[in-house]
Each structure stands twice: as structure tokens, then as C-alpha cells.
């Protein structure tokens, strides 16, 4: 799939009953991927198979329209028909597929109960909260019994109170129910709770693919490290650690990577100590940074780094979580030059 200055070149699969999370920064190709899978976009070249059925094959001139693909979609917005009740919204899909009125209504009642919305059957969308509408939208997406369910950031538009309940519902209905699904999200928590496997896109290509916990615990890209709440430094594996592009050795514990291999060093922001002047002694990694931002985060304060003048560019985006008292002791503001210090035992070095 190509658009001006962008090409989506991916090969992915989801096994029957598997939930595959697709992560990536804005512009990585996530929405384009969903458009191709749903049939709303025609790729320039490609093959899409849903179950045993080929729904897109550019070489053979096959393009099954969206409503005949056996694909359901739950988007950020519920997009319910405003003139229909919750029950009729859910029954719409089966009715459009030729199912009789009584059977479609029974399917709607079953799904209303399944998504904990049995009391909402006679309400129209304007009479429901955002969380209630999203429950009904999930039931509507499942009503035609799709072979593939597409989840396009389904929790992004919900308020903070409705999100945990909807996330738990999705886990029960989708993951535990063995519904094959592709989930697009920016949330590491959503991926951990809902997905069996994660694919990370960058620039229209797959840069990471693996079990959800493995990918988030051992990120190999800056984006994945950021959403997993980890710091990441790129480089090449060297004796005793990782050699950065500018030649600095970041000491750490290597894990299945050989000297000379492209690698990343990963560590949590909570492992970073911050100093106003360069500390001496002890086998620690000492990284010069410029303070870019101060971000309160509950009981800690996150200090976000940028590259100092003439310093290494790869420190840009690194974070340190420190106490409010430590920030007060430092007495600094954005723009100040600092030192981030990390013990070698806190740094894990993985192949990339």
C-alpha cells in the first residue's frame, strides 16, 4: 500500500483465537493497515486472507467489499445509529446478512447480556453514556459473528472512570472468548491486558514482533521503550556493555547478544540518579543531558532529557524518575545541564 512519501510493506498474521496488538508512533501505518484489512482501502499490491477466504488479492483482481468480508470493527467512537435502540443497533448486522428478525433479536439480547448492557436494550444512543455506547458498539461488532474483529483504539475516547471497566469487558468478551482480533492501541496496558502478541510498526514496516510481555519487557525500538516506560540507548554490543554511535560505553548485562551485534541498552527511569555536577568514582554510567521537561507523576517527578549542546543526540527523550525532594535539592529548571547516572547492574543489553 503506497501513498505520497509513504509505503506500507508488512506481512502479519493472527492465529485463530489470537489477539494481535499493533503499536507504533503516529504515521507508522496502523490506520492504513486497518483500512486494508477491512476493505475500506485497496492496496496497490497485496494479499489478505480472513480464515480460509481470500478477500484481497491484487494479482488476481480480487477485492471483496467490506460488508462481505466477515470483519467487524470497533472504533474510538461508538458510531451507533442514532434513530435505533441499542437492541436494534446490534440486530442490524445479522438482519443485513439475511438472518430472520426473531433470530437477530435473540442474538442481540444474548450480546446485550454478554456486554453487561441488558438494561440498555430499549435506549437510543442519546440516552446512554459514552461507556454504555461503547459496550453496545462492541456487541454490534460481534453480532454478525465476524471471523476477524478490528479494534481501533476502542478505549481512547472514554473517560478515565469508564476505561477500566471497558478494558475488563474487552478482555472477557474478546480475549477470553477466543475471538480473533487485531487491536490498534498506543497503550502498553491495553496491549498487556488484551493481546497475546504484539507487532510494532515504524515507517510502514514491522520492527518488532513477539509475545506481548516479551516485546514490552525487551523493547528494541525507542517507541516501544517509551510506551513500556523504559529508557533505551541504541548502539553496538561491546565487551562489558554497549558502544554508542559516538563511542561512549554504556556498561550493562548482555543477554543473548554477541560483540559487534546491533543492540540496545534498556533500563527503567526509576534506576536513574540525577546530579547537577558530574559525580566521580564507582562503576556507573554517567550520561550528560540537558533538562527538557519536569513532569509530575503521582509520588515521583519525571525529568525528561534532551541532548546538551555538543553532546550525544541519543540521550534525547531519556527519563529519570526522582522524588520531589530530589528536584527541590537540584534547584533546576528546563534548560539546565545535568548528569543522568545508572548503575551497570540496572542496564540490560538486548540484540536488535
Automatic annotation (TrEMBL):
Keywords: ATP-binding, Molybdenum, Nucleotide-binding, Transport. Residues 280-351 form the Mop domain. It comes from the Bacteria. This is ABC transporter ATP-binding protein. SUPFAM superfamilies: MOP-like (SSF50331), P-loop containing nucleoside triphosphate hydrolases (SSF52540). It comes from Pseudonocardia hydrocarbonoxydans. The gene is modC. InterPro entries: AAA+_ATPase (IPR003593), ABC_SmlMolc_Importer (IPR050093), ABC_transporter-like_ATP-bd (IPR003439), ABC_transporter-like_CS (IPR017871), Mo/tungstate-bd_C_term_dom (IPR008995), Mop_domain (IPR004606), P-loop_NTPase (IPR027417), Transp-assoc_OB_typ1 (IPR005116). GO terms for molecular function: ATP binding; ATP hydrolysis activity. The keyword ATP-binding applies.
